[in-house]
Recover the amino acids of this structure.
């Protein structure tokens, strides 16, 4: 772990951590996706109640066609990013794979994109497409503390299910001599 360097604002601090995590996992997020991630992290910093409810129920509630549907879909996508990236052990406690949160989060962002994305700013389309790399950056952020984000079995499942670079690197660190990851899954 590198020395902690405090930034002058919360935004700058999150941005520095995201940048360091991108270096650690050798990924470069698109600028708009990176900015979204920074502000999402700021939004959820003070919200411990994030893990209180089952994601499938929130996703079903978000299917209601009303003025709050976009906010609910965004929250489902964001929480799934947090669960799959920062808190993958929640999947184990809920007896699901981490890839469950990946599929649910991507679906939420895709539905949100259909509701609100414009041709000039397809933010949620980008988030759905970049879900796995963003998750990988969050896992790398967790790994900056020296604690592995994924156990080997979870890493193997996530790599097999999604082609996650972070999962591959975690698995490669736990086992010597893995084959190189391929892009044949189409989930990148």
């Amino acid at each position: 772990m590198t020395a902690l360097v405090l930034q002058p604002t919360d935004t700058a601090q999150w941005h520095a951590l995201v940048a360091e995590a991108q270096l650690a996992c050798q990924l470069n997020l698109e600028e708009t996706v990176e900015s979204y991630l920074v502000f999402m992290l700021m939004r959820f910093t003070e919200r411990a109640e994030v893990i209180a409810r089952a994601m499938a129920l929130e996703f079903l509630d978000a299917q209601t066609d009303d003025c709050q549907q976009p906010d609910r879909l965004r929250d489902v996508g964001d929480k799934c990013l947090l669960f799959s990236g920062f808190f993958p052990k929640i999947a184990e406690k809920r007896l699901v794979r981490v890839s469950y949160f990946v599929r649910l989060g991507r679906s939420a962002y895709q539905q949100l994109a259909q509701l609100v994305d414009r041709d000039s700013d397809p933010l949620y389309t980008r988030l759905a497409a970049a879900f796995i790399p963003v998750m990988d950056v969050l896992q790398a952020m967790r790994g900056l503390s020296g604690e592995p984000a994924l156990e080997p079995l979870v890493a193997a499942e996530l790599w097999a299910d999604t082609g996650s670079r972070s999962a591959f690197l975690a698995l490669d660190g736990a086992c010597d001599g893995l084959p190189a990851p391929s892009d044949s899954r189409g989930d990148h």
Summary: The first helix runs from residue 10 to 24. The two ends are 27 Å apart (CA to CA). The mean pLDDT is 84.
